[in-house]
Amino acid sequence: MLADWLRASSARQHPRPNNEPLPGTLKCNIDTACYVNSNKFSIGACIRDADGGFLKAFMQTFEGQPEIREAEAIAMKETLKWLQQYSINVRGY
C-alpha cells in the first residue's frame, strides 16, 4: 500500500508547489485578526516576488467586531485599494 502511494504521489505533476507565483509575477498574502476584548480588528498584506523576496507590506486597524468573513472581505477590499496605489495588476488563481 505504501509503495502504491509513493508511486502515485511521485507521478503527480505540481507546476507551482506551495502556490508559488510564476516567474516574473508577485504573490500577495492577506490575513485578518479580530480582537474581541478591545473591539478592534486588523488586516495585513505582504507582497513577495517569485523567489519569495519581501517587497512591501501594509497593516491597518479598524474599530468594531465584524464576523470573520466580513473582516476578510474588508481585508480583500482594502488590499486591492492598496495595490492600486502601486499600479499592481491583480489576477486571481
From TrEMBL:
Residues 1-24 are annotated as: Disordered. InterPro entries: RNase_H-like_EbsB-rel (IPR052929), RNaseH_sf (IPR036397). It comes from the Eukaryota. GO terms for molecular function: nucleic acid binding. This is RNase H type-1 domain-containing protein.
